[in-house]
Write a structure and sequence with these properties.
520 residues, alpha/beta, seven-stranded mixed beta sheet, three-stranded antiparallel beta sheet, pyridoxal phosphate binding, EC 2.6.1.2, transferase, PyrdxlP-dep_Trfase_major
């Protein structure tokens, strides 16, 4: 027997001990030969660098630093940070809806189905959801569009909501929150130069839209809501924005947020009909963000879905206007942001394009199955004859009733502060008041290289512990300044927050304004 040649050769190789090799690496590094990083700020995709998302921007980062300092025993002129920057209901103290959590718990841990603690209607829904999952487990993948019968439940919900307007479950796609659904925008971006896709968005807007437009290299086309008319959408402004945009891009998409974020308005049926007629005439794809459809507080307002109004305009409109509408588990009365559940319904999509949409959905495999289960509870809530019905509606009404009270209180207190003007919070979860800032404060902000309302919100945070989002992060008319705040904190804490904002604003005016400016 002879030893194989490769073994002999291996034995003859001059292998260095590990410590010697480490030393050689250290010498190479010392000599400046360390491998350079591939991904740096210079090589980073410039469109990623351009993306901004104010809701979790620098003010929120600073709030986190202050919070950690307080936890470590640091001294601040306040004892806690109150974050009113984001619509995260449970983080603000809102309690979960019992029935929803029962169903998801049963789906997650099926052994609980034998427990007498859970009501039979919750068990019935959980068994049904599990039967739609591979291996009867919430941990399995589902179809990319979501579990079929949950999509069917969504379609039934839409029909009931819209008083009999037909809904085809094949047009329903379950999503990872509404934000995931809005990525359908990717399919609409094409062309170069003056033929590049323009996307019309309201100003003020939810920064998800501007961020997506930037990342996808589309062209942002701003149309301004009418602040003097409770943030109504003016059809003449749509025409102005469209015609101006046609000089440098091709507007193809019209985005609507109703009820509004950050502005809290609820669009009238007349307004919606005008918008849809405009979209029909200009051949625009309509994206209707309706995640706050349950959050309507003003007795003079009513939520109208864009789909329902489109149907009532007749077959010529209903069978031709391309419309994608969105809903979510994160808002409404459930506030289940962490489940990342949602859906979109897409009408009048070209069949070949629909196949491409399904392909894109399949790349992401499927939405979180726990989120699909939560969405199913929202669209298939307890019926009057079921044991959980009374408690479910008691909890739902309590949440929405408390939000309506807080919306009114927020408007009243802010409008009592000199230099602050707040429109009625008709719906959604936010107030977006205008703040009058003295020229001296504006000049100081510009000298510091920041927006004036950013300076205001930063000072508010550092002096009171209140975390709000400057209006510049949402867009606003030139020369106006705002902040967005959520109305989600418990009523007592919200009152404390509003009182602190009032006291700070008066102090801020005294510091920066002349006596004449303070008296205006």
């Amino acid at each position: 027997w002879r030893r194989p040649a490769f073994i002999i050769r291996r034995r003859l190789r001059p292998w260095l001990p590990f410590s010697v090799r480490n030393a050689s690496f250290a010498l190479s590094a010392a000599a400046g030969k360390m491998r350079e990083k591939t991904l740096t700020m210079e090589t980073l995709n410039p469109h990623v660098k351009a993306v901004e998302y104010a809701v979790r921007g620098p003010i929120v980062t600073k709030a986190g630093e202050i919070e950690r300092d307080l936890q470590e025993g640091g001294k601040q002129p306040f004892t806690e940070v109150i974050k009113a920057n984001i619509g995260d209901a449970h983080a603000m103290g809102q309690q979960p809806i019992t029935f929803l959590r029962q169903v998801v718990a049963l789906c997650t841990f099926p052994e609980l189905l034998d427990s007498p603690t859970f009501p039979e209607d919750a068990k019935k829904r959980a068994r049904r959801i599990l039967q739609g999952c591979g291996g009867t487990s919430l941990g399995s993948y589902t179809a990319s569009q979501g579990v079929d019968f949950i999509r069917q439940d969504v379609a039934s919900y839409i029909e009931q909501r819209d008083h009999g307007v037909p809904a085809d479950w094949e047009n329903v796609y379950l999503t990872t929150g509404a934000s995931d659904g809005i990525s359908i925008l990717r399919m609409l971006v094409s062309g170069q130069g003056s033929s590049r896709t323009g996307v019309m968005i309201p100003i003020p807007q939810y920064p998800l839209y501007s961020a997506a437009i930037t990342e996808m290299e589309a062209v942002q086309v701003n149309y301004y809501l009418d602040e003097d008319n409770c943030w109504a959408l003016d059809i003449n402004e749509l025409h102005r924005a469209y015609q101006a945009a046609k000089q440098h891009c091709q507007p193809r998409v019209l985005c609507i947020i109703n009820p509004g974020n950050p502005t809290g308005q609820v669009q009238s049926r007349k307004c919606i009909e005008e918008v849809l007629h405009f979209a029909y005439e200009e051949n625009l794809f309509v994206m209707s963000d309706e995640v706050y459809q349950d959050n309507v507080y003003s007795p003079d307002c009513e939520f109208h879905s864009f789909k329902k109004v489109l149907y009532e305009m007749g077959p010529e409109y209903f069978n031709s206007v391309e419309l994608a509408s969105f809903h979510s588990t994160s808002k409404g009365y459930t506030g289940e942001c962490g489940f990342r559940g949602g859906y979109m319904e897409v009408l009048n999509l070209d069949p070949d394009v629909r196949a491409q949409l399904i392909k894109l959905r399949s790349v992401q495999l499927c939405p979180p199955v726990s989120g699909q289960a939560a969405m199913d509870v929202i669209v298939n809530s307890p019926h009057p004859e079921e044991p959980s019905y009374a408690r479910f509606h008691e909890e739902k009404n309590a949440v929405l009733g408390a939000l309506a009270e807080k919306a009114k209180m927020t408007e009243q207190i802010l409008n009592g502060v000199p230099g602050i003007r707040c429109n009625p919070v008709q719906g959604a979860m936010y107030a977006f008041p205008q703040i009058l800032l003295p020229p001296k404060a504006v000049e100081e902000a510009k000298a510091l290289g920041m927006h004036p309302d950013m300076l205001y919100c930063l000072r508010l945070l550092e002096e009171t512990g209140i975390c709000l989002v400057p209006g510049s992060g949402f867009g606003q008319r030139e020369g106006t300044f705002h902040f967005r705040m959520t109305i989600l904190p418990p009523k007592e804490k919200l009152k404390v927050l509003l009182d602190k904002v009032r006291d700070f604003h008066i102090k801020f005016l005294k510091e920066y304004a002349t006596l004449e400016e303070q008296l205006r």
